[in-house]
Every structure is written in structure tokens, then in C-alpha cells.
Description:
- This protein has five helices and nine strands; from the N terminus they run βαββββαβββαβαα.
- The longest helix has 13 residues, at 97-109.
- Strand 7 (123-129) and strand 8 form a beta hairpin.
- It is of the alpha+beta class and 202 residues long.
- It has two domains: 14-71, glyoxalase-related enzyme like fold; 88-197, 2,3-Dihydroxybiphenyl 1,2-Dioxygenase, domain 1.
- It is globular and about 60 Å long.
- It has a five-stranded mixed sheet.
- The chain starts with 13 loop residues before the first strand and ends in a 15-residue tail after the last helix.
- Helix content is 26%, strand content 24%.
Amino acid sequence: MNTEFIVHPKLQHYGLTTSNLDAMVDWYRKVLGMSTQHRAEVPAMARGRAPFSGAAFTSNDEVHHRVVFFEVPGVVPDPDRARHARMQHIAYEFQNFDELLGTYARLKGLGILPVWAADHGMLTAFYYQDPDGNIVELNVNVYGSEWTATEHIRSAPSFARVFVDPEKMLEARKKGASPWELHQRAVAGEFNPSKPFDPRNF
């Protein structure tokens, strides 16, 4: 048994409280492909003593659950969350640009649009807001290599943030731009949104 050195466990799942259980489960199903593995309600006789009234355990891969939604009647999103300590966002990574852009197009068809998007140098990220105001980042490693992306972030003088318009990137890809060209053109400012994003609000 190792009692001297740090063991690096993998992130397995996280839990969110909500008063909108059905809406949250539906949104995460549409956006991330989360399916409900188990859903339970606290028996009526125990609701006064339990911290929540129900829960839904969801996953979008082989792990039994990745996100658990705990239903807490009356809980409301923090309207001043940008000024309070909190979990700022959760990120999900796609394998390639086409998965990210294809998902953007699919979600746009459902009326779900990112609240802001950016090229960060080693990845391109689209940020969405769930029904309770939590930020969910969908991204792609522009290098296609974790090692190269790590070298990038270690050697970069600052953490880059060039705002991009996903629609412009999608159109460029449809016209034949390679994934690496999309990144280069984004950094050059070619895909800047017509209306600037203000991520301080999220």
C-alpha cells in the first residue's frame, strides 16, 4: 500500500442540485447524450428528513453514472453566481473538429446555442448554459494530441482566448478548410463574432 506519494484518481462523476429535474435530464440527454441509468424518488414519509426529493443517475459512456441530478424543491439558480464561489464550468471533449461542429449544428436545430465560444490555443471550445445556468463546455484538442496540447499550455506566455463564431467555423469547414486551418484562421481573428461575447456574465 502506497502511503507516501500522491495517487492521481480519474474524475468519475459529479452531482448537481436542481428543482427542474425533468428539464435538466432532458437537456443533458439532448446535448451530451446522457441516458438515465436509474431514477428514484424519496418516499413521501421521508421527504421531510432527506436533503432531496429525488435523483436521476445519468451517463453517456460505459461508466454507470457520470452526472447525478438531485431534485431539491424550491432551490433556485444563483442570480449573482459570477460574484460567488462555485464550480465555474464542466468540460467535455470531442475527438475531432467535425464532432464539435456537427454537434453545434445539431443543437442549433434544437434551439440550443452556445453563450460564447473561443479558441484557447490548444483547444477550441463552445460554452453552453443548461436550464439552471450551469456552464457546460464542449471542446476539441486542436493538436489531436494531449502531449502537444500540454506542451502548448506550458510554454504559452498567457492563456489565449480568441472569440469565435461557431457558425463561421462551420461554414469554413463545409467549404473545405482543414481542422488545423480552422484553428489558424480563428487565431488570426477571421472567425470573430459580429457581436462580442462577455464571458464575465457566466
